[in-house]
Design a protein that fits this description.
The protein is an alpha+beta fold. The chain has a domain of about 60 residues. It has two helices and eight strands, in the order H-E-E-E-E-E-E-E-E-H. The mean pLDDT is about 80. InterPro entries: ConA-like_dom_sf.
């Protein structure tokens, strides 16, 4: 097996780095200015289940703080967390989860964020399929 082309390609990436700049035009920008979350753009998801899995934290609207920036606050506090189906579970942590109400296709995404660090914290920013795409994927499997 000749690995010379691989080595040359790797060296080109090291010595000649490139910067990709998306083309097109801006279709969405959110700066979270003001003191409230714009609910025409964002949906606050509550409860403790995501994708059918029970989480250790209860997602609550109270943990979304907007003050010219967005803060999703994780707290250690014992709560009875209610799911949309009316069931409750005792949990010791609260957090928040939001998503855009709009779907985007073929987009370049740029996010500027600061995250906390600490034991058992898992800050995450996700891009996920839309609900309709997830239902289609489930039918295929």
């Amino acid at each position: 097996m000749d690995i010379s082309p691989f080595i040359i390609s790797f060296l080109q990436l090291i010595w000649f780095p490139f910067k990709w700049t998306p083309t097109g035009h801006l279709i969405f920008q959110e700066t979270f200015s003001g003191s409230t979350l714009n609910k025409t753009i964002w949906e606050v998801q509550t409860g403790h289940k995501t994708f059918g899995k029970t989480r250790l934290q209860c997602y609550r609207e109270d943990n979304v703080i907007v003050n010219d920036s967005l803060t999703i606050q994780a707290k250690y506090e014992e709560v009875k967390c209610q799911e949309n189906d009316g069931t409750t579970i005792d949990l010791k942590y609260t957090s928040a989860r939001i998503r855009t109400r709009r779907e985007y296709k073929f987009s370049a995404i740029e996010i500027e964020a600061r995250t906390s660090n600490g034991a058992h914290l898992q800050p995450a920013l996700w891009t996920q399929k839309s609900d309709s795409e997830m239902k289609f994927t489930k039918r295929l499997t």
